[in-house]
Design a protein that fits this description.
Among the domains are: 146 residues, no CATH class; 143 residues, no CATH class; 109 residues, no CATH class. Helices cover 45% and strands 12% of the residues. The chain has 22 helices and 14 strands.
């Protein structure tokens, strides 16, 4: 994985020089030619631009940066008194900043205003900046501060400053190599020293604002053979810089897109958030117009139809896809580290083929139309409408892998869907009267049915597959029991209307788990309803009685219990029978 991230960084030219990185200042100190402070202003992050500066790895220790940093380093005052470290004071950081930057200020003519700002007592520099900074809004104080020179340039981005940073870095690297270096475990070269600490990766879901580490050895228990920190990973400084840059790019790359209301919304190019705690990053080795996430997240009927027919056409294009590779990382924040949940590496051609299988497996009929449920909706099918449950993000990550790799869906996902249907069935009403009432198509949604169909069909390749709509030739007892309960619910509704205690809300749970206990009473009640209806609705009575007799005749014995998979077949049978309501003659 790290090797492919390094290749991505090189291909996209993300690392201009290992000593440099991009930073976005949000607080500007304006200086005149004498070093006087003209003002301290905060700028919106949307207006702020990224500029090259020195790349440093921030740790708990004091680590100063050249000419750009937070208020503790630049001004010696904290932005938030409640977050002061016990062993390190803002003055310690300020002293470290001056120690590091004084050589730059003395040797670079264009930095004379900054030198005067700190060292010329005649100017209204440092003290005025401190006073103006203290007047800023509390939220505005938390950010990176930069000096804006009278020449119209930022101090940290001056060409001569960047050249000195690179020169000092290269000299330090040569000294490390001269003292001996090891072969890198990623690139298999020994041209660069092994870095003890890698840079942080920003914008990780549920991660820290300061960033999270992918490779980290912060305890002696993790180390071996007398090696310290990341020396144990044997990742050279060049590869460490590249993989961090690639991850930061994948996490942030995107563009603003106008929504239906005309407002702009930022859309990520290589990232898909799964809830608030997980994200999927994806890319291809070579650029390709084929994007699996678009297909899964918002499937369009015409695009899916073209995808399903594409294996039979365009062999030359297929060969190009076969040579190309698709990569995917699923990750979350875990305190100061990154929790790597999944890594996928597969040919783009195989990805395309697997997606064809995916859409075939989830295809169902909903209101007389073929429906392809978006992946995120299928994941949400495992939780209730009011739940704030992280389960959906976990399921979404699993379904993503199942779609890309053509793998089986774990049985616990089926269990989660069935439990939700069973819980929601108690809230069923033919006509919703209260806010917590649920209709038949909310309980048995197309997303829930598609997920159960996908899971069961992939787990039982040798058995008769569940079809996309009503299968009159399917004599599986659980499937027939589900259809039968649907007919019994229709009979009661036709006879009594929307009663408070109906077949679905009272008996679905028991009928779908212990049919032999529930159906005897239900069928007896149905016979009573039919006899009552014969004089009032003779035509409808004949139709319903015919359905009831047909289904009962196909069931030899009602099972005492149903397995988890059969409970899924039961729910699908119920859904398929209910879909007949959309036929013109029902």
């Amino acid at each position: 994985m790290i090797k492919q991230l390094c290749e991505l960084a090189k291909k996209e030219d993300l690392v201009k020089h290992p000593a440099l990185t991009k930073i976005t200042p949000t607080i500007i100190i304006d200086l005149d030619s004498e070093g006087n402070c003209l003002g301290v202003r905060s700028i919106d992050k949307k207006e702020a631009r990224g500029f090259l500066c020195e790349s440093v790895t921030k740790t708990r220790n004091v680590v100063a940066r050249v000419l750009v940093d937070n208020s503790e380093y630049l001004l010696g005052i904290t932005a938030d008194e409640t977050k002061n470290a016990k062993n390190v004071t803002p003055q310690d950081k300020f002293n470290a900043f001056l120690d590091k930057n004084t050589p730059y200020l003395r040797e670079t003519a264009h930095l004379k205003p900054v030198y005067n700002f700190y060292f010329d007592k005649k100017t209204t520099g440092l003290e005025k900046a401190k006073a103006l900074f203290s007047e800023l809004d509390k939220k505005a104080k938390v950010g990176v501060i930069a000096f804006y020179l009278p020449t119209g340039k930022y101090a940290h981005g001056l060409p001569e400053v960047l050249e000195k940073i690179k020169s000092d870095y290269d000299t330090a690297q040569l000294e490390k190599i001269a003292s001996g270096t090891k072969e890198c475990s990623v690139c298999a070269r020994n041209q660069f020293p092994i870095e003890p600490i890698h840079e942080k990766i920003k914008r990780i879901p549920s991660g820290q604002a300061s960033g999270n580490a992918l490779v980290s050895y912060n305890s002696d228990a993790f180390c071996s053979y007398g090696l310290e920190q990341n020396e144990n990973s044997k990742i050279c400084s060049d590869c460490a810089k590249n993989y961090v840059s690639a991850l930061n790019w994948l996490l942030s790359e995107g563009r603003p897109v106008p929504n239906e209301k005309g407002k702009e919304k930022f859309v990520f190019t290589h990232r898909k958030n799964l809830g608030s705690d997980t994200a999927i990053l994806f890319w291809t080795r070579d650029k390709s117009g084929f994007d699996p996430m678009d297909f899964l997240d918002a499937p369009q009927d015409d695009e899916v139809a073209r995808l399903l027919s594409s294996p039979d056409s365009g062999r030359e294009a297929d060969i190009r896809l076969e040579e190309n590779q698709f990569y995917s990382i699923t990750l979350s924040g875990s305190a100061a580290r990154i929790a790597l949940r999944d890594w996928i590496e597969i040919s783009l051609y195989q990805t395309k083929s697997n997606l064809c299988n995916w859409f075939t497996d989830i295809e169902i009929i909903d209101n007389k139309k073929k429906a392809y449920t978006p992946l995120w909706k299928m994941a949400h099918a495992c939780k209730g409408s009011t739940d704030k449950d992280p389960l959906s993000s976990r399921v979404q990550g699993i379904l993503w892998r199942c779609a890309i790799k053509n793998q089986l869906v774990p049985l616990w996902v089926l269990s989660a869907v069935i439990n939700r249907i069973r819980a929601d069935s108690s809230k069923f009403k033919w006509r919703k009267k209260e806010s917590n009432d649920l209709s038949i198509y909310e309980i048995f949604s197309s997303a829930r049915i598609a997920l159960m169909k996908l899971t069961i069909n992939r787990l039982n390749k040798e058995e008769r597959p569940i079809m996309l709509d009503l299968d009159r030739e399917n004599n599986n007892t659980a499937y027939l029991c589900g259809r039968l309960l649907s007919v019994l619910a229709d009979i009661q509704h036709a006879s009594l209307g929307d009663v408070n205690a109906g077949v679905v809300d009272r008996f679905y749970s028991s009928a779908s788990t212990t049919p032999s206990v529930a159906f005897g009473r239900l069928i007896k009640n149905a016979q009573y309803h039919l006899s009552k209806m014969r004089s009032e609705k003779p035509g409808l009575t004949v139709k319903l009685e015919k359905k009831l007799t047909e289904l009962i005749g196909k069931i030899n014995d009602f099972p005492q219990t149903l397995t988890l998979e059969d409970q899924g077949r039961f729910a699908i049978g119920f859904y398929h029978q209910q879909q007949l309501r959309f036929e013109s003659n029902q």
